[in-house]
Amino acid sequence: MSLQELLAQYTNETYTLPYPFYRDAVVLQEERLKIFSKEWQFVGHVNQVKNPGEFLTCEMAGEPIIVVRGDDDQLRAFYNVCPHRATQLEPQEQGRRKILQCSYHGWTFKLDGRLHQAPNFKDHMDSLCEEDTCLRSIQVETVASLVFVNLDNKAQSLQEAHGDFFEDLTRFSFLDRLKKHSSEKRLIKANWKAYIDNYLECDHCPIAHPAFASTFDMKSYTFVDKQSCIIQQADIKPTAKMGDVELQGVEVKEGRYYWLWPNMIFSISPGSGNIAVTVLTAVDENTTIANYTNYFVDQEPSPEQTENIKFVNQLRLEDIKLVEKAQIGFRSSAFPYGRYSPTEHALRRFHQMIKRALTE
Ligand code: FES
Ligand SMILES: [Fe+2]
């Protein structure tokens, strides 16, 4: 079935996105082209690239990317690819360099992306033009201390694309004080959209997340629909604890969970200032890497932050099991699509956005 035929099948009222969307390589190829190559993607907190030479790397739409602070204090982003013969330039996820060096033939680059030296062209430097030797740049922007990149040079600004998210974040005063505490990558045997589907409904919470349901007042659980994000909000129960640690009197008294189109999750948990970020990278139509990063206001986590890490980790493991089981069903021919429950409206909204993006 062609992509157009598939898209026509989804009328988005009662039934979910058809299951071939979760198992078809052509769909992922189109998503890379029409979604991931055009949208902003979170890469890190500005405190991770505060000093000249500090860098972060990531992947989006199958492209390796590097973000680096120049000697002139400017933050730049490039394809993390050597102009000589394509080798990935910087293999580390984060670090600090005086100069960027390719490990293949030793070309070196200044932090602004211009060639420094090309040893194998030593006496023939004149034969190289700037086009052949500069790193290819892409867009990078920082709002609310959060750094995002975009492959599309014509894309709207980060503020325009996600203004409602940043506006909501102004309720928290700790964003510029956050420091990276830890990060982790997990290989998930499911399509990236299965992970987002799971995040965008909480019908499964009482069944799959007993600790979550006992911490939060599930009657207060709400979904707030914004233009470029969906926010889930829950108040803590008056007697709630994080492990053995009391939550009364902490800076953040709620759970606030943001989904950002298309593949990002920002979770703020009760406690002192914190954000746990998830960015999904599709490896193929059946496999996704979840990149998790935990940020706290203090580098040494307080007792309730340590409990917070365990809490968030447990939720993730519970969700991963569910989405991997869902993927088994997506690959089955038993059913062509699923049914939305009366409360799964955020899920429906996500599916509509997928359809709209792929139809354009
Ligand atoms: S591929 Fe990088 S120096 Fe040759
Ligand atoms: Fe969940």
UniProtKB/TrEMBL annotation:
Keywords: 2Fe-2S, Dioxygenase, Iron, Iron-sulfur, Metal-binding, NAD, Oxidoreductase. Pfam families: Rieske, Ring_hydroxyl_A. Residues 40-149 form the Rieske domain. The keyword Iron applies. GO terms for molecular function: 2 iron, 2 sulfur cluster binding; dioxygenase activity; iron ion binding; monooxygenase activity; oxidoreductase activity, acting on paired donors, with incorporation or reduction of molecular oxygen. The keyword Thylakoid does not apply. InterPro entries: ARHD_Rieske_2Fe_2S, Rieske_2Fe-2S, Rieske_2Fe-2S_sf, Ring_hydroxy_dOase_asu_C_dom, Rng_hydr_dOase-A. Its cofactor is Fe cation. PANTHER family: CHOLINE MONOOXYGENASE, CHLOROPLASTIC (PTHR43756:SF5). This is Aromatic ring-hydroxylating dioxygenase subunit alpha. It comes from Brevibacillus fluminis.
